[in-house]
Amino acid sequence: MVLYAHEKGHPIAVFTTGIGMKIEDFERIRHIQFAPNPNGGFVLHIPDKDRRAKHPITPAYIELLAHIQHVYLVEKGIHNYHWMSMGEPHEDVVHIFPRTTVHEMWSRSGNLLGEAILKPELLNLKDHFKSIYHGEKDMTCNCQERLYHNVLLPNGEVSLCCMDYNLDAIIGNLLEQEYDEILPEPYSCYKLCRFCENGISPESESVLKEKEYFNLV
């Protein structure tokens, strides 16, 4: 699918743990000029020592990670590549990744709190991830892509964004509609945004200036 989209001329970004990938799979896509930010690149999520991310760490997996890192460091062969983790590198991969970028953990617009009903172990992590509630007021998206960082699901449905873990904000279905038909109006407001660290009031100064710039007022 990655190769197909690339050959059709689409910008490509990959966010992966690499689990299930073989070295041969990586070799088939390493030539791609992965898109830059925002939300671009070939981003590898590596295991952390506290096992917040539950990677199945096998000899084949470690071999894959070492190969990718060799291609990057020695062959200079991956465009816009970097790696990250939810903590310090796991002891089984620290020889490959002595250092890593550690990202803050957020509640995915409150979805992790609800998911704790199904996964009680998340209650032990509630002090490790951040949450926010903007109150019962209209909020829209303040990401660089605004409301257009959508997620296509296998059944053709399109979720508003990657924060919508509960799939409550389905904006349409590409098996039945054109993409232009389902795009949200600029600065539309969603309940999801009230619980998101990227939420912003549509009446904020920065949004009003942007609307004025694009003649949307």
What does this structure look like?
- The protein has 217 residues and is α/β, with parallel strands linked by helices.
- It is 21% helix and 14% strand.
- It has helices at residues 2-7, 23-29, 59-73, 111-115, 179-182, 205-213, and strands spanning 14-16, 42-45, 81-85, 101-102, 105-106, 129-130, 140-141, 151-152, 157-159, 170-173, 199-200.
- The strands form four sheets. Strands 1-2-3-4 form a four-stranded parallel β-sheet, with no helix packed on it.
- β5 (105-106), α4 and β6 (129-130) form a beta-alpha-beta unit.
- It is globular and about 55 Å long.
Which descriptors apply to this entry?
single chain; 217 residues; 6 helices
Task: Going across the biggest sheet, name each strand in turn.
Answer: 1-2-3-4
In helices, the fraction of residues equals 10-25%
| Strand-pairing-aware structural class | alpha/beta
Uncertain parts: none
Name the average pLDDT. 92
